[in-house]
Design goal:
Elements (H helix, E strand, L loop, with lengths): L9 H51 L11 E2 L11 H14 L4 E3 L2 E3 L8 E7 L5 E8 L4 E8 L2
Antiparallel strand pairs: 1-4, 2-3, 4-5, 5-6
Helix pairs in contact: 1-2
Length: 152
C-alpha cells in the first residue's frame, strides 16, 4: 500500500469548498434578482389598475372631462375636498394612490415606494376628439406608465 496517498489532501478540499462557494453565491444573486423582478411586476400591476381606474372615471363623466386634466400628485397625497363629481373623483384617486393594501406580501400590507421624482399626472386635450392621458412615473422617475384614450 502506498503511504503517500492516504486520502483527500488539504488542497483538494479547499478547491472543493471554493467551487461550492461560487455556486452558492450564484444562487443567492439569482434569488435576489428574482425577488426584485417580482416587486417590479407587482408595482406595474398596481399602476395598470390605477391608470385604468382614472381613465374609466374620465370616460364615465365626458361632459366634465376638461376638469380632470389638472391632476398632478407626488408622494404627499391629501384629499382636497369639493362637491363636484370631478373633485370627488380626484380625491378617490388620491386615496387609492396612498392606500397601502394594494400589495400584499407574506400576509403583510406593503405600500408602493415613492420618491420625490415620482409623479402621477392627467392631461386632457380638446379638439375634434377629446382625449385623456395618464402619466405615472415611479421608481425615481425611471419606470413610466402611459395610458391614453379618446373620451368623446
Amino acid at each position: 500500500m502506498d503511504k503517500s496517498n492516504k486520502g483527500i489532501s488539504i488542497i483538494e478540499s479547499l478547491v472543493c469548498i471554493a467551487i461550492i462557494g461560487i455556486g452558492f453565491i450564484a444562487i443567492m444573486q439569482l434569488s435576489a434578482f428574482s425577488i426584485n423582478s417580482m416587486d417590479r411586476a407587482t408595482e406595474k400591476n398596481k399602476l395598470n389598475y390605477l391608470s385604468e381606474m382614472v381613465m374609466e372615471d374620465m370616460i364615465g363623466d365626458p361632459d366634465n372631462v376638461t376638469n380632470y386634466g389638472s391632476f398632478n400628485e407626488t408622494c404627499s397625497y391629501s384629499a382636497k375636498g369639493g362637491s363636484n363629481l370631478y373633485n370627488k373623483m380626484k380625491d378617490k384617486w388620491r386615496n387609492k394612490l396612498k392606500e397601502k393594501n394594494h400589495i400584499r406580501v407574506n400576509n403583510k400590507d406593503k405600500k408602493m415606494p415613492c420618491d420625490y421624482s415620482d409623479t402621477k399626472k392627467t392631461f386632457v386635450n380638446t379638439g375634434t376628439n377629446t382625449t385623456g392621458r395618464v402619466n405615472f412615473l415611479t421608481g425615481k422617475g425611471k419606470r413610466k406608465k402611459y395610458l391614453g384614450v379618446v373620451v368623446k
